[in-house]
From TrEMBL, chain A:
Domain of life: Bacteria
Subcellular location: Cell membrane
Membrane topology: Multi-pass membrane protein
Lineage of the organism: Bacteria, Bacillati, Bacillota, Clostridia, Lachnospirales
Family statement drawn from the similarity comment of this UniProt entry: Belongs to the binding-protein-dependent transport system permease family. LivHM subfamily.
Coiled-coil features, chain-numbered ranges: none
Alphabetized UniProt keyword annotations: Amino-acid transport, Cell inner membrane, Cell membrane, Membrane, Transmembrane, Transmembrane helix, Transport
GO molecular function, one term: L-valine transmembrane transporter activity
GO cellular component, one term: plasma membrane
Protein known as: Branched-chain amino acid transport system permease protein
Automatic annotation (TrEMBL), chain B:
The entry's keywords: ATP-binding, Nucleotide-binding, Transport
Protein name (record): Branched-chain amino acid transport system ATP-binding protein
Source lineage: Bacteria, Bacillati, Bacillota, Clostridia, Lachnospirales
One biological process term in Gene Ontology: L-isoleucine import across plasma membrane
Residue ranges of domain ABC transporter in the record: 4-252
Domain of life: Bacteria
Entry-linked CDD domains: ABC_Mj1267_LivG_branched (cd03219)
Alphabetical list of InterPro entries matching this protein: AAA+_ATPase, ABC_AA/LPS_Transport, ABC_transporter-like_ATP-bd, BCA_ABC_TP_C, P-loop_NTPase
UniProt GO MF annotations: ATP binding; ATP hydrolysis activity; L-isoleucine transmembrane transporter activity; L-phenylalanine transmembrane transporter activity; L-valine transmembrane transporter activity
Record GO cellular component, one term: plasma membrane
Record has Nucleotide-binding as a keyword: yes
Keyword ATP-binding among UniProt keywords: yes
Family matches, as Gene3D superfamilies: P-loop containing nucleotide triphosphate hydrolases
TrEMBL record, chain C:
Protein name: Branched-chain amino acid transport system permease protein
Single GO term (MF): branched-chain amino acid transmembrane transporter activity
Pfam families per the UniProt record, alphabetical: BPD_transp_2 (PF02653)
Organism: Oribacterium sinus
Compartments in which it is found: Cell membrane
Length: 293, 252, 352
């Protein structure tokens, strides 16, 4: 029974990773850059929801919308100010800038909200489910997180394959130049990608803070990095890959915490990343990219 | 024995046969041209010859030794050097250092001798600089020796690429569109330079080119590639007057 | 060619002479007793950060890869060397010899880990390397915080579970005690040792850059495909460069460990933030510019200490520095703007 409970908690944590990883993977696929600050957008989403709910007295649905709006605006702003001017620069410069943005967001939050953790009230009001005569308790947060994770992945896949905007994203991710020639608004498409990715980060932030109710300026850092690991594990650029990678990573982390060592669980997760990259650098579902000579 | 002998060479990308049943035979000191319409697979042939791509079929014999399966690095060591269609220089190194980088495999001094600046370091560095300057003077680049390669004008960058390739002391030199983007005067000068390279270094040269004046001016023989296959081959003037070739270029 | 000779002498002076002069000036002030204890406490860290900055610049500037794990290599160097000193402490060896052995152990262990972690360099590019190195830094910190290492008559005992699993016999002593780390490291580091190690690191790096190997590494950075076409073994050389850089970061770790009596692997000193700070030094000082790295490390370490009010905003300033520097040096729009201004300023000279 305890195994199933660890497994479900792992899938739940994995769903959060998956939602963040989806944002990473979309941005990577389209802008060909690692948005290091993605995890910190999640943290901003957490604070926005916290402020809306606890200080402004907005209800849960409005708080979620408020948080998503803030994150979307922030994501688009960051893209416009910091990343867009560097679109043709080398990848090292873009990566360092993204690290700078991540650092900036963390330290702004530190100045604004202080280092003391805020205790985040769970947005999930679903009662826990008791199975097998109370031996197996599944919390509402776990169920909602898993459901939202699946929902987000399905909606995103439908969006990309069934709508014009989604097709434009695919076109831009294949070839920016050709997409421009075909009349695709490349700048708009990239901005839209950042907007969607950031809105998803906000959702992930709220789910994460509901399950682990302490919110600090560095809340987003570790999940952000782990979600990136998940995206790489699944094959960066691939949406189903990000989802599978996220779930696998969450399960792996929770099971190693339970059965191996709680102190070493991060080390185990990161070791898996290194091993995967050595064995299959393109990840589980990634494509191999060949450089043109 | 020919210097380079290629038989039945082929590679596919996702089901598309980019190069199929390609064959060529080049004698020592020959100036050989590989021509064909855009997208015919000429650069792919170069990439196969230099180990950037591994062929699906066929053999590449350099001095009788099959070099299929060797890496870029090994193939260069065995004696094939090349230039690139889109210039690939070491932009942030000086012109001199671009050439000196080509001497790397000569094992002039060891890592330790370099770090501790033992006498051999100074001696060999001096020697390499002198040789690099000699090579640069062939291309009239010696006064740019200390400029950054990325700051050279276009035509000179093309020449520097050739100088760098020669620094590795190859037996076969592959030039990928050396005259691309040059004006007629520069092209004229380039033709002289290519002949000079052949004579001075006893070099065998295979080049891809679209400029027909250059091709007919310096190439001894030609192979025409169309849709990844050899359309025809032979003496330059005969090939250029071949009906099939004219059709391939101008369409039906 | 005469000019070249002159430039070389100028280079040597700027690389090493300035550091030496500053060293003697500081020594003079120290003798006269006009240095505050705060400043005294900063002297060794200045050397540590300078060494870290030039070692990271070797990776970022010369081989063109990004490492976010340099604090991890520093951590390896610190813990291996401190363990070595702890084991040899109380033996009959003279302290300087113990420190020298510890230094070698620190550099070699960090270099070895750099080599292990650098093997992905053989397969991966840019972004992935950054993440792998970041992951490595976290793994190291994680393991050291869980590691118990004690020694008694029966030899060495290790455990990754908890302290009680290591049953130390009579007279046994702890070397690494989990999250509490190492306590009682002998203090061998001082300003003179720091400056000597900085100068040696600088000398090593400069000689490396200006050797055939360094030239080849930079060629690979500029264009890997062209480099392989002239038989430069790209993967091997990048790995070599990465290993050297890690070893030098390990030396900084040795200095760090022997400057404090207790050593713990905290996020503050060996975490991701520390790696970012080193990156800030490199970026602000100019990617590929070793002297700039040292200058940036010194200025950015002293500034917040001198202007206490700045301290709250220090991290914020670092973040802005990273973004603005990158936009200014790499964004095509900014480059055009900058060249336009330079062009206007210097047009007269060009015409004349």
């Amino acid at each position: 029974m305890s195994f199933i409970s660890y497994l479900l908690n792992g899938i739940s944590l994995g769903s959060v990773y998956a939602i963040i990883a989806l944002g990473y993977t979309m941005v990577y696929g389209i802008a060909k850059m690692l948005n290091f600050a993605h995890g910190d957008i999640l943290m901003v989403g957490g604070y926005a929801a916290f402020l809306a709910f606890n200080q402004m007295g907005l209800g849960i649905p409005l708080s979620i919308l408020f948080s998503m709006a803030i994150c979307t605006a922030l994501g688009v702003l960051v893209e416009r100010v910091a990343y867009k001017p560097l679109r043709s620069a080398n990848s090292l410069a873009v990566l360092i800038t993204a690290i700078g943005v991540s650092y900036l967001l963390q330290n702004l939050a530190l100045l604004l909200f202080g280092a003391n953790p805020k205790s985040f009230q769970s947005f999930v009001k679903l009662p826990a489910l008791k199975l097998a005569g109370g031996q197996l308790v599944i919390s509402g947060e776990t169920m909602v997180t898993i459901l939202v994770g699946i929902l987000v992945a399905v909606v995103l896949l439908l969006f990309i394959h069934k709508t014009r905007a989604g097709q434009a994203m695919l076109a831009v991710s294949e070839d920016k130049g050709a997409a421009t020639l075909m009349g695709v608004n490349v700048n708009g498409t990239i901005a839209l990608t950042f907007a969607i990715g950031s809105a998803l980060a906000s959702v992930a932030g709220i789910l994460l803070c509901s399950a682990y109710p302490t919110l600090t300026p560095t809340t987003g850092a570790m999940p952000g990095i782990k979600a990136f690991v998940a995206a790489v594990l699944g094959g960066i650029g691939s949406i189903p890959g990000a989802f599978i990678g996220g779930i696998l990573l969450g399960v792996l982390e929770n099971l190693s915490k339970a059965y191996i060592s709680s102190k070493l669980s991060d080390a185990i997760v990161f070791s898996v990343l290194i091993i995967v990259l050595l064995i299959k650098p393109s990840g589980i579902l990634g494509k191999k990219i060949m450089e043109k000579v | 024995m020919s210097l380079l002998e290629v038989n039945a060479l082929g590679i596919s990308f996702g089901g598309l046969k980019a190069v199929d049943q390609f064959h060529i035979s080049i004698e020592k000191k020959e100036l050989y041209g590989l021509i064909g319409p855009n997208g015919a697979g000429k650069t792919t042939v170069f990439n196969l010859l230099t180990g950037v791509y591994q062929p699906n079929t066929g053999e590449i014999l350099l001095n009788g030794e099959n070099i299929v399966g060797s890496s870029c690095i090994e193939i260069n060591k065995k004696g094939i050097a090349r230039t690139f269609q889109n210039i690939r220089l070491f932009d942030k190194l000086t012109v001199l250092d671009n050439v000196k980088a080509g001497f790397f495999q000569e094992n002039s001094y060891s890592f330790i001798e370099g770090i501790f600046r033992l006498p051999r370091y100074f001696q060999k560095e001096k020697e390499m600089s002198d040789r690099a300057l000699d090579l640069l003077s062939v291309f009239h680049l010696e006064e740019h020796a200390l400029d950054l390669a990325g700051n050279l004008p276009y035509g000179k960058q093309r020449k520097l690429e050739i100088a760098r390739a020669l620094a590795t002391n190859p037996s076969l030199l592959l030039l990928d569109e050396p005259a691309a983007g040059m004006n007629p005067n520069e092209t004229e000068e380039l033709m002289d330079t290519i002949r000079l390279v052949r004579d001075r270094f006893d070099m065998t040269i295979l080049l891809i080119e679209h400029d027909m004046k250059l091709v007919s001016g310096i190439c001894d023989r030609l192979t025409v590639l169309n849709f990844g296959q050899v359309l025809t081959e032979g003496k330059t003037q005969e090939v250029l007057h071949d009906e099939k070739v004219i059709k391939a270029y101008l369409g039906e | 060619m005469k000019n070249v000779q002159k430039n070389k002498i100028k280079d040597i002076f700027l690389n090493y002479g300035v550091i030496l002069i500053l060293y003697f000036v500081v020594q003079l002030f120290l003798k006269s007793g006009s240095v505050s204890s705060l400043m005294k406490g900063l002297l060794v860290p200045l050397c540590i950060y300078s060494i870290l900055a030039i070692s990271l610049n070797l990776v970022v500037g010369i081989s063109g890869e990004l490492s976010l794990g340099h604090a991890g290599f520093m951590c390896v160097g610190a813990f291996f060397s401190a363990s070595c000193s702890m084991l040899l402490k109380g033996s009959s060896l003279p302290p300087m010899l113990i420190f020298f052995i510890a230094l070698c152990i620190g550099a070699i262990s960090a270099g070895f880990f750099g080599f292990l972690i650098g093997i992905p360099v053989l397969r991966l590019k840019g972004d992935y390397l950054a993440i792998v190195t970041l992951a490595f830094g976290e793994i190291i910190k994680n393991i050291i915080n869980a590691l118990y290492f004690g020694v008694d008559k029966n030899g060495w005992h290790f455990s990754l579970k908890d302290g009680t699993a290591v049953a130390l016999g009579e007279g046994g002593k702890w070397i690494i005690k989990g999250a509490q780390g190492i306590t009682g490291t002998p203090k061998y580091s001082n300003f003179t040792v720091g400056i000597i190690l900085l100068l040696l690191s600088m000398l090593f790096i400069q000689h490396f850059i200006h050797s055939r190997t360094g030239r080849a590494v930079m060629a690979i950075r500029d264009n890997r495909i062209a480099a392989e076409s002239i038989a430069l073994p790209a993967s091997k050389l990048k790995l070599l460069c990465f290993t050297i850089s890690a070893a030098i970061a390990g030396i900084a770790g040795v200095l760090y460990a022997h400057n404090l009596s207790s050593l713990q692997a905290l996020p503050k000193n060996f975490g991701y933030n520390q790696s970012i700070m080193i990156l800030v030094f490199v970026v602000l000082g100019g990617i590929g510019n070793m002297r700039g790295s040292i200058l940036a490390a010194v200025v950015l370490t002293l500034l917040p200490e001198l202007l206490r009010s700045l301290n709250d905003y220090r991290m914020l300033i670092y973040a802005v520095v990273l973004i603005v520097m990158m936009l200014f040096t790499s964004a095509p729009g900014f480059i055009a703007f900058r060249e336009n201004i330079l062009h206007r300023l210097f047009r007269k000279e060009v015409n004349a």
